[in-house]
């Protein structure tokens, strides 16, 4: 019997030893596994904290003008921009030991297990803020063991690589508050119409209760349930030492009002401009659609809200409501290229086609200033004269071309370049174009930033090849800024959700035009508003002169299907087009004047608070003299009209006008009166 007992005892000891050894091996394996998990988490490093967020668009003064709309409202704000009461309320109710654990609250987990066993079901959660943040960032909200293991691993990675402040900030910016609002900023805006930084204790404690069940605890669903949850949160805040009992009672007793609307639910500000900005993010910054829509970008644009409002107002007031004609407008700062206002059509809801940047329309006579800039480089001056008369041009291949002036009016004699531009004489333009060579205008247009294809034909001088409105605004900016390179710009800076600068506009002040010739052209372009240049017809800007209160330069243009007005002051250049989308002829007289009227009224309103500035000549290279505008010669006291005109220095006229002098008087200014035909008149052998 004793032998049997000893044998049994030894057998028990053997089993205990085996169990202990196996347990130790298991513990070592568990420790190795745990250390392996930690090591692997460390090797992987910090997980990215990027989550889908709304991209925000701002005007030039920092005003929010729009956002990407994916059905979710997400804004990222730093912890310092969140009400401390909301932070404390959230920690108190969701994870009171947040600052003391390392991602898992073991005591809370044990308590939850006991509670679940007692209730024979899951009645108490034990997820910490870090665990919830890991779930919000990386995982679907299913209840599988695979998801839970992944959640635990992400929790370890978050705790190992980020501070408690970073984790809490991320959690508050990703948690769902119902009604499409993700994060405290979107929720605060939706429920209370204010920033998260401005929430009161009463509002914060109410909002902190919503994430537990937005469909149950939202004050918009049940104010009773929401108030009950608020009371529980205020008690926990008192218990955890965040507030005093008196503060809790005061907050619980406050009556709250709710906005229940997301700000900027629809794009109302400059919708064509905002579309153009999104296209620029893709084409110029090479961002994909998802990043633009959900990347949480902050896009700072060039839009001037007052000028945009002025543009929309003038389009609406000038164009008859019953007209089907369309219009486009681009206003730019000529020094920076920043687009200050954009109209892409009369009604964005009916048509999202942006005629300001997508349409290619015939520019008509607005192309002539570019042609005449090239002419200044080939010996022409504002006083260069040619005959304005009905002309047929014959070419070596047997073809011929007969351009016409508006209403078939001609001077029937010599006119100067300055007057030809002011009256928009087509014969002068075609003669100049053919003399320079048909490829000269094409090359010069490219120098001005016009990228659309142009046909090498005689009629190109009259604007028969399509261009974009935004490109023409950019081209005229080179005249306004003295010949410095600018490109139409919509975006000044782009930041990611963390505030890192992804793009920032840099000015390129490269001189691409001769400043003296650019200024001479600018001064010639003021001529369309100067009655001193009236001739066989009135200057083309005569219908709007009375509306203008400051110096402007510009050029109108028209074809059978297109009407243009492009002009500028030293501070602003604006291009306006009007016409039909199907390119049908503009027959009504009123419709032919829409572009000029919109331009004039917009410029006056856009600049009404700006200092009146004259066009400033360059320090050297130009000289101004008084000329007789009829013949371009130096004016005398006897000339009935004298106009101060700028020339490139060295090209100013030296011959005095003698047509109005008393023939009996001796003329002390008789030098250089011998008349010779200008050299370029002998060139046009093909003209009849």
Keywords, separated by commas or semicolons:
transmembrane helix; serine-type D-Ala-D-Ala carboxypeptidase activity; Penicillin binding protein transpeptidase fold; carboxypeptidase; five-stranded antiparallel sheet; Beta-lactamase; five-stranded mixed sheet; disordered C terminus; transmembrane; 688 residues; alpha+beta
Low-confidence stretches: 110-125, 663-676, 678-688
From the spread of the alpha carbons, the general shape counts as elongated
Number of helices: 22
**Helix/strand/pairing class, anyone?**
alpha+beta
Q: Indicate the proportion of strand residues.
A: 5-15%
Output the CATH topology of the domain at 339-490 and 511-606.
Answer: Beta-lactamase
Please name the fourth-level CATH homologous superfamily of the domain at 339-490 and 511-606. Answer: DD-peptidase/beta-lactamase superfamily
In whole angstroms, the N-to-C terminal distance is 144 Å
Q: Mind summarizing the main beta sheet?
A: 5 strands, mixed
What CATH architecture of the domain at 339-490 and 511-606 would you give?
3-Layer(aba) Sandwich
Any overview of this molecule?
The protein is α+β, with helices and mostly antiparallel strands and 688 residues long. Among the domains are: 1-44; 70-252, Penicillin binding protein transpeptidase fold, CATH 1.10.3810; 339-490 and 511-606, DD-peptidase/beta-lactamase superfamily (Beta-lactamase), CATH 3.40.710.10. The protein has 22 helices and 18 strands. The strands form 6 sheets. It has a 5-stranded mixed β-sheet with strand order 2-1-5-12-13, covered by helices on one side. Strands 7-6-16-15-14 form a 5-stranded antiparallel β-sheet, sandwiched between helices. The chain has a two-stranded parallel sheet with strand order 3-4. Helix 2 packs parallel to helix 8 (201-208) and helix 15 (368-376) packs across helix 20. Mean pLDDT is 85; it is low at 110-125, 663-676 and 678-688.
């Amino acid at each position: 019997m004793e032998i049997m007992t000893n044998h049994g005892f030894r057998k028990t000891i053997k089993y205990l030893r085996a169990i202990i050894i196996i347990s130790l091996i298991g513990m070592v394996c568990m420790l190795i596994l745990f250390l392996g998990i930690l090591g692997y988490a460390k090797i992987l490093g910090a997980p990215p904290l990027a989550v889908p967020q709304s991209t925000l668009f701002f005007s030039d003064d920092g005003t929010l003008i729009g956002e990407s709309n994916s059905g979710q409202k997400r804004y990222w704000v730093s912890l310092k921009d969140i009400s401390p009461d909301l932070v404390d309320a959230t920690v108190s109710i969701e994870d009171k030991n947040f600052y003391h654990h390392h991602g898992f609250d073991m005591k809370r987990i044990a308590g939850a297990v006991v509670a679940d066993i007692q209730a024979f079901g899951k009645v108490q959660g034990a997820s910490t803020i870090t665990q919830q943040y890991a779930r919000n960032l990386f995982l679907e909200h299913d209840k599988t063991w695979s998801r839970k293991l992944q959640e635990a691993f992400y929790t370890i990675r978050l705790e190992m690589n980020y501070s408690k402040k970073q984790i809490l900030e991320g959690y508050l910016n990703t948690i769902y508050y119902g009604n499409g609002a993700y994060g405290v900023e979107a929720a605060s805006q939706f429920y209370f119409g204010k920033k998260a930084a401005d929430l009161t204790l009463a509002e914060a404690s109410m909002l902190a209760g919503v994430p537990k069940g937005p469909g149950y605890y939202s004050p918009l669903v049940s104010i009773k349930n929401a108030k009950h949850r608020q009371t529980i949160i205020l008690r926990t805040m008192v218990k955890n030492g965040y507030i005093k009992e008196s503060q809790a009672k005061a907050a619980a007793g406050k009556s709250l009002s709710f906005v229940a609307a997301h700000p900027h639910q629809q794009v109302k500000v400059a919708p064509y401009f905002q579309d153009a900005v999104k296209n620029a993010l893709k084409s110029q910054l090479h961002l994909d659609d998802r990043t633009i829509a959900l990347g949480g970008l902050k896009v700072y644009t060039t839009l001037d809200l007052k000028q945009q409002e002025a543009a929309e107002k003038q389009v609406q007031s000038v164009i008859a409501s019953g007209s089907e004609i369309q219009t486009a407008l681009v206003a730019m700062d000529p020094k920076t290229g920043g687009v200050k206002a954009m109209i892409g059509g009369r009604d964005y809801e009916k048509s999202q086609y942006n005629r300001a940047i997508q349409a290619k329309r015939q520019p008509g006579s607005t192309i002539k200033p570019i042609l005449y800039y090239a002419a200044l480089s080939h010996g022409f001056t504002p006083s260069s004269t040619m005959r304005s008369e009905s002309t047929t041009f014959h070419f070596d291949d047997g073809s011929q071309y007969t351009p016409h002036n508006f209403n078939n009016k001609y001077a029937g004699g010599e006119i100067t370049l300055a007057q030809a531009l002011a009256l928009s004489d087509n014969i002068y333009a075609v003669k100049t174009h053919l003399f320079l060579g048909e490829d000269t205008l094409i090359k010069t247009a490219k120098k001005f930033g016009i990228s659309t294809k142009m046909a090498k034909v005689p009629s190109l001088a009259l604007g028969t090849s399509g261009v974009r409105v935004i490109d023409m605004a950019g081209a005229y900016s080179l005249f306004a800024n003295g010949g410095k390179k600018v490109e139409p710009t919509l975006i000044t800076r782009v930041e990611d959700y963390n505030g890192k600068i992804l793009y920032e506009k840099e000015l390129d002040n490269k001189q691409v035009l001769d400043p003296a010739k650019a200024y001479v052209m600018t001064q010639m372009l003021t001529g369309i508003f100067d009655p001193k240049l009236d001739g066989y017809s009135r200057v083309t800007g005569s219908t709007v002169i009375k509306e203008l209160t400051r110096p402007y330069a510009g050029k109108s243009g028209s074809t059978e299907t297109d009407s243009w007005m492009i002009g500028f002051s030293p501070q602003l250049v604006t291009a306006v087009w009007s016409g039909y989308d199907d390119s049908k002829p503009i027959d009504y007289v009123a419709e032919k004047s829409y572009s000029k009227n919109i331009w004039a009224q917009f410029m006056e309103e856009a600049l009404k608070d700006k200092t009146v500035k004259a066009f400033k000549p360059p320090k050297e290279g130009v000289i101004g003299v008084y000329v007789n505008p009829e013949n371009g010669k130096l004016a005398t006291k006897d000339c009935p009209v004298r106009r101060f005109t700028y020339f490139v220095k060295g090209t100013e006229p030296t011959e005095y006008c003698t047509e109005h002098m008393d023939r009996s008087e001796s003329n002390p200014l008789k030098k250089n009166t011998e008349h010779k035909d200008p050299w370029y008149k002998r060139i046009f052998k093909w003209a009849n």
